[in-house]
Hints:
Blueprint: E1 15-18, E2 28-31, E3 37-38, E4 43-52, E5 55-61, E6 70-71, E7 74-76, H1 83-95, E8 99-110, E9 115-124, E10 136-143, H2 155-170, E11 176-179
Parallel strand pairs: 4-9, 8-11
Antiparallel strand pairs: 1-2, 2-3, 4-5, 4-7, 5-6, 5-10, 8-9
Amino acid sequence: MRKPIRYCKDCGSEVAYRLPDDGDTKPRAVCTGCHAVHYENPINVVGTVPHWEDKVLLCKRNIEPRKGKWTLPAGFMELGETTEQGALREMVEEAGAQAQIQPLFAVLNVVPAGQVHFFYRAQLLNTEFTPCPSETMEIRLFAENEIPWDEIAFDTVKQTLKYYFADYHHGSYGFHTVDIG
Length: 181
């Protein structure tokens, strides 16, 4: 559950949740002092499905949430970057991997968490990885039958991996969207 905005980001006055005077149809956090309207929008998570031959790269998390579980390299998008740039940055930060980015592969709406996850396929350029130890405790390439499905950190990662291997076996990659939640 999200925490409601309590104070104006512009002037520091308290906010009140009400319909803004501009005709908006949803209650928003409106400053009682300067009348600024503060919108609450989903957070973007960006990542990759790094692959080498018939395997995908997974990282064992060294941070919460879900420390010790396996995930695709992904994280929160930063201001000033595109989804593609953020996905590549996260792959380098978490896995120390070098890859050629490929088309956007999956968009997963995680409405209860207020997030949208974007995953690109990424062709690994080599199998030399240098993970950031503060974020990743282990990196491995997994064939489909080796993936520790019960140890996958997030439902979005599990669903993306299922789409990836289904497309791999089909011989072509599509674009997938799903609501998780």
